[in-house]
């Protein structure tokens, strides 16, 4: 659940017991980097300036619509160390194509993470054939795919582009979600997401003044 405070937001990672997370609806999603590492850019004058890694995160988020045709990605923001978005499931089932970039939670492949010279190295799932499966897809399936795909792409950036390495995993193991139950909540959260970079900067300035 989310609670607005002067210094930002606070959440508890709790899934509603018995709730069907494949059903139609809006979901407010937050995913945080492991150790809250600042990997995706910086905020300047209240605006988030994405680096190459942040641009990759944005690209892969928007591509989810291709992998899961029955979803819609509403307002989102990539922050230095976390990601906010409103995800809408339009219908409860979707057609999934088994291609090399789909992750293990979606198609049953395995994401392998080894440690070579102290740096995690990802191996993307591969296949020589394309199969089509119709299944009920949950919020967890979608977020799991996003986290796995972006982890593989980030590792490639570390290896070939010199991106900063991460500690064991790119994202924290869990994610945070809030079920948006009406239009008023939808628009309030939309505004919260839009204003997140400005709020972040104000919070950072306040922290420095207190030191």
TrEMBL record:
Gene3D superfamilies: Transposase IS200-like (3.30.70.1290). Residues 22-196 form the Transposase IS200-like domain. InterPro entries: RAYT_transposase (IPR052715), Transposase_17 (IPR002686), Transposase_17_sf (IPR036515). Coiled coil: none annotated. SUPFAM superfamilies: Transposase IS200-like (SSF143422). SMART domains: Y1_Tnp (SM01321). PANTHER family: REP-ASSOCIATED TYROSINE TRANSPOSASE. This is Transposase IS200-like domain-containing protein.
